[in-house]
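Here is the promised in-class demo. Please do not try to memorize the tokens; focus on the logic of going from shape to residues.
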């Protein structure tokens, strides 16, 4: 069964961000490719497009945030984990309507699904460390 709603959007975003890192297609090209998928209409399409544009429009700033907490150069991060971290950081930074706990839980869930065996621990640690500076009032 396909993932729906915002979780489905996040699942597709992880795949789209992975693809971007390999091919560096534009946000419009990637969105068009994913719009052709059978289950695309089941996700929150507006949220997918919004976050895709926000993330790809600001990868340098997101990488600077990662540099603060990463235990290795950003370029050495696994592309799946880097995509999940970009997604989590963008939600923390730009989408205050999404609670911090939801952002981190979703990122960990995606890391379990797509990442390396213990990647979820790394994702959790990085986002947990950066959340207070991105959401000081929360």
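The designed amino acids, position by position:
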């Amino acid at each position: 069964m396909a993932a729906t709603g915002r979780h489905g959007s996040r699942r597709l975003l992880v795949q789209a961000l992975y693809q971007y890192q390999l091919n560096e297609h534009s946000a419009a090209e990637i969105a068009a490719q994913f719009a052709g998928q059978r289950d695309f209409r089941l996700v929150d399409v507006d949220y997918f497009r919004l976050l895709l544009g926000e993330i790809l429009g600001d990868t340098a700033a997101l990488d600077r945030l990662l540099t603060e907490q990463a235990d290795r150069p950003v370029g050495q991060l696994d592309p799946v984990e880097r995509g999940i971290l970009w997604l989590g950081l963008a939600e923390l930074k730009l989408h205050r309507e999404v609670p911090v706990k939801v952002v981190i839980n979703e990122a960990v869930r995606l890391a379990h699904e797509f990442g390396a065996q213990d990647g979820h621990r790394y994702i959790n640690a990085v986002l947990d460390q950066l959340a207070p500076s991105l959401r000081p009032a929360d």
